[in-house]
Amino acid sequence: MKIRRANKLDIEEIVACVNSSYFHYIERIGKKPAPMLANYQQAIDEHTVYVVTDGSVVVGVLVLIESNNQLFIENIAIHKNSQGKGFGKSLLNLAESIATTTGHEFIELYTHESMVENISLYKHFGYCISHQITEHGYNRVYMKKRLIS
């Protein structure tokens, strides 16, 4: 496993990874989840994007946005064939490490309310639900973790 900053040559594999990760939610939500519609070229240009590779293949993606004295996880996705192998935990740990190193008090993320397994997973890693809203046509659950006491 190798984690590195994403570049424009990764876009095709990033899109494939994200689509694989979220495809099974389409039926549950009734439409494509927002990460499947994102512009990853724009994300690489404007935000901080990491990929995790298994060999030479992208199997995970992390998109971070800095704002309001916190680091926001815009997306964390693991290819369906690579889930359960610790790649997601490694990306989550990286995000939290970056947030702590850069002096952010909190790290925040959101997930769709019907992605109950994600909500449970994030709670396991110390995230608490901060609020729920409908945003851009999606019912989102925002979760936050305090990093600095």
From TrEMBL:
Classification via InterPro entries: Acyl_CoA_acyltransferase, GNAT_dom, NAA80
SUPFAM superfamilies to which the protein is assigned, alphabetical: Acyl-CoA N-acyltransferases (Nat)
Domain of life: Bacteria
Residues of the N-acetyltransferase domain: 1-148
Pfam families: Acetyltransf_1
Protein name: GNAT family N-acetyltransferase
CDD domains attached to this UniProt entry: NAT_SF
